[in-house]
Structure formats: structure tokens, C-alpha cells
Amino acid sequence: MKYNFDERIERRGTDAYKYDRLAEVCGRDDILAMWVADMDFATPPFVLNAIQKRLEQRILGYTCTTDAYRQNIVKWCQTHYDWTVTPEQVSYVPGVVCGIYLAMQAFTEKGDKILIQDPVYHPFRIVPETNEREIVWNHLVRTDDSFDVDLDALRNDLKGCKMMILCNPHNPAGICWSRETLQAIAHICAEEGVLVVSDEIHCDMILGEGKHIPFASVSEEARHNSITLQAPSKTFNMPGVVCSHAIVPDDQLREKFFYYIDESDMTLGNVFTYDCAAVCYTEEGDEWRKQMLAYVQENVDILEKGLARITDKIRIIRPQASFLVFLDCRGLGFQTSEEYTDFFANKCRLGLNPGTMFGPGGLGYMRMNVGCPHSIVEEALKQIEEALKEA
Predict the structure, then answer these.
(1) Distance between CA atoms of 138 and 126, rounded to whole angstroms?
(2) 3-class secondary-structure state, position 14
(3) From the centroid of its chain, how far is CA 78?
């Protein structure tokens, strides 16, 4: 490989949330940090070079959106997803979660119902509840190897809702939703008058034979009834840059949403935003991305094979996307989320995310971040094996 993903970079004491908040969140800091969703790989050199080039100007002033920023996003969508968008349909937003908040503020009122599908990324619940919206849970159905959507239940649960927040690809289960599923969701939401906000931050991290299909691309119903949120931050390991964008194909939705975020002073990125994003969405960025994904895929394989050798009580939901792996730990037989968390933190010495963080359907699961050197995954497996022997 051109890039070294084996390197272990010391991040403790650097104000890294993933490491310097371990004791506060997990009760101890002498454990492997495999929870917060950033990777332990060095941020790509072309991103650091873009930052250095901007620093050489010596004034960190207000910075305009560049032509390359929007044009590279448009070209990337066409090349990778066969999805035609125009520069006018793209706007910077300060983070995908912030984008969800802004869409909620622009299109719903206090007391309105917003549907989410659990288990799912926890800000989907926290942001609406904090802003006095009512959460409607649509529970994903456990299958033999993953989760799926119960479309009949979805239609029933959507009644009276104003918005659905879709996770595509899904976090934490790493599902690439099929075209048929997305089309069905689009049709139901259009019939029920429910706007879809599609979080697609993991869209560029497809593993193996998986395929990402942008929600807005699957039908005219989806195109005219959705806001898509994307970002290079996860894929290129630069979440601290705060660099995300919204894509809104429908003219009326776009006019209302872009006016709202612009008047709310939310469309001006920081001095590094546009350069970093633009350089990621290039051939050089794509080369790094492919090598990183091949390495992450090896980590998933190491984890799956290692767990199969060690125990039948913990098995992975094999992700089709992302560096996050949802572990089905129900075979351990614990009754509460606290017992699962205690076992992994204090027996296995691993800092993971408890499944209940992602909703009531997450009990018995833990989320593990394998965006790290192989040696860390192998170390985690050894610690799990030791803990099970002592149990």
C-alpha cells in the first residue's frame, strides 16, 4: 500500500475526545478506545497539505465557498453514484447532525412527530427531543445476519409524522439499503406527506460488494421529498475540520431550506473547510479511500474470524459500509445494558458504545470501531478471549 495504516499514533493527551474522555464515559482510561467514530489512521497527507497551503497565507479570515468545492462534490456524486446534481443544489452545513437540526427547525414545529428507526445513531433521538419534538420509534426487524425494515409497520408509524430521519448507510449496523427498500420508503413518505432527511455520511465507506444508493436518486418521489446530508469527514478522518454539505434537488424545498440556513448564518465554513473537502473529492482522495477501505475490510475479517474461534456468544453483524461493527452479544446472557458495558470495560478492557445508546432495540449489542491498525483489533480479541476464560 502507498499509505501506512499500521502505524499506531499516540493520541492520549492531545485533547482527543476518543481518548481523553475515556475515564469520564467508561469509568477508566487504561482500556482500548474503540468507541467514538473517528479513525486512528493519520489524516491523509493531501488534506494536511491543503491546510498548510492555507496557513501560508498567514491570515485566517472569513473564507468564501470555492468553485472547486461544489464542482468536486457534483463530479463525485456523478462518478460514484451515477447521481446527477448541480452546484446550485449543494450547500455547506456545519456538520451532518447540525444539518438534521436545521432541517428540523425549517420544516417542523414544537410538538411535531419525527420518526426514527432504531437501533440508530443516537443524535437522531437527542436532537428532536431536546427541541421539543416527539420521537416516533419504528423498530428495525432482526434478520439472520442483520436488520431490515418492516414496511407495514413503517406505514402505520408514519401516520401523523412530519419528518423521517433516515440513516443510509445505516449506523450502527452498516447496512446499505437496497433500491427497492428506499423506493418503498420514498413512496410511503410521499403518500403520508412526511419529509425525509437522509444522513448519508458513511456513503463513501462501502465495503466488499456493498453499494450505496443515494435516497434522492431512487425515484421522483424521493427526489422531490428529501434533503440529503453528506460529508468527507468520516471517510477521510477529519471530523475536527467540521465539513459537511446538504444536497436538495427539489426547487421549492431547496429555496426554503437554503434561505433558512443562510439567514441563520450557517452556510459559512471555516477557513480550511472548502480546500479540505475539494481535495478529498479527487482521484488522489479516491486512491487513499480505496486503500483505507481495503484495510478496514481486513480488520472486519480479522474480528469475525477471531470471534468465531474464541466464542459463539459474540458475533458480528457484518457491515456493508463504514468502520463501525455492531456486535451481537446477547449470547452472554446479561439482562441490562450496564452489565454489558461493565463486562467489556472492566473484564475485556475495551471502550465500546453500548447498544442501548442507539435505542431500545440495541439491548444486548455493542458497537466497536475498527478504524484502527490491525494490531489493535488483534489486541482486542486477546482481551476478549482472556475475559471469557475468567468468566
Answers:
(1) 16
(2) coil
(3) 21
d(CA 376, CA 329): 20
* pLDDT given at position 56: 97
Could you give the maximum distance between any two Cα atoms of the chain, in Å?
61
Q: Which residue has the cell 443544489?
A: 89
Average pLDDT, the chain: 97
- The predicted pLDDT at position 1 comes to 78
- Look at residue 133 and tell me whether its pLDDT is greater than 90: yes
- Residue 207, CA distances (Å) to 175, 322, 323, 325 in order: 10, 7, 9, 12
Give yes or no for a contact between 376 and 32, defined as CB atoms under 8 angstroms apart.
yes
CA 295, CA 65: separation in Å to the nearest integer?
33
Return the number of other C-beta atoms located less than 10 Å from residue 69's C-beta.
24
Whether 80 contacts 232, CB under 8 Å: no
Q: Are 291 and 1 in contact (CB under 8 A)?
A: yes
Angle between helices 273-280 and 67-81 (to 10 degrees): 30
- Judge if the upstream peptide bond of residue 172 is cis by omega within 30 degrees of 0: yes
For the chain, the first-to-last Cα distance in angstroms comes to 40
